Amino acid sequence: MKLDVFPHILPRPYFDRIMKIASGPASYMQKRVASIPCIYDLDERFRVMERFPEYVQVLTLGSPPVEALGEAALTRDLARLANDSMAELCRRHPDRFLGFAAALPMNDPDASVEETARAVRDLGALGVQIYTNVNGVPLDDPRYAPLFARVAELDRTIWVHPARTAKTADYPGESGSRYELWWAFGWPYE
Fold first, then answer.
1. The CATH number of the domain where 151 resides is what?
2. Which of 114, 128, 134, 150 could form an S-S bond across to 106 if both were Cys, CB 3.0 to 4.6 Å?
3. Domains held by the chain: number
């Protein structure tokens, strides 16, 4: 068996919802994702997966981070939609998807703790995915301590994803990453 523990997906219900609110990070993501249909098109994903015998995935939500998409009330709903959708994909295709890492509305730390418990207990999430910062706030900020405690209490895994984007300048005089150094050097750095 070949197990991929960090393949990104934007489940169709979630993808359709964020495209309706596309602005800021979502509109940037829309441009990049258009060239990678296996992230949002399940038939295309299966065609790619079939090229690799005995290949299975643990699903993780693709960028942008949920917390970058709006205010707390919206991101709570988006996280639930993403997690419900990934859980449904795992239920419908257990031979292809062994599980998923829950997405969290990290701009609402209390809701993130609640969604972690719901996703693990009710949906069977194997853990959670968080980004290296929350809208610029580092993960060692005390407001995130209860989340780490909850994940430990549930004996689950944390997937950590780099947070830099093309809008992250490589040099102080830039408005964004001119040569995509954010990806080549920024992600490994984070």
1. 3.20.20.140
2. 134
3. 1
